Amino acid sequence: MQCVRIVGGRPLGGSVEIGGSKNAALPILAASILTDERVLLHSVPRLDDVHLMLSILKKLGGDVTLEGNSATVRMGCVSAVPDFSAVCRMRASICLLGPLVARCGEAVLPLPGGCAIGPRPIDLHLKGLQKLGCEVIQSKEGVRLRAKRLNGARIFLAGKNGGTVTGTANMLCAAAIARGTTEIHFAACEPEVVDLCKFLTGMGAKIYGIGSPILTVDGVDSLRGAEHRLIADRIQAGTFALLAPMLRGDMAIKRAPISHCAALLDVLERIGVPFSADGDCLHIFGGKCDRLAAIDVSAMAYPGFPTDLQAALCALATQCCGESAIGERIYENRFGHLVGLRSMGAGITLAGSTARVVGPTKLAAAELSVADLRGGACLCMAALAASGESIVDSVHHMDRGYEQFEEKLRSIGADIMRFER
Question: What is the CATH number of domain 2-19+232-420?
Answer without folding.
Answer: 3.65.10.10
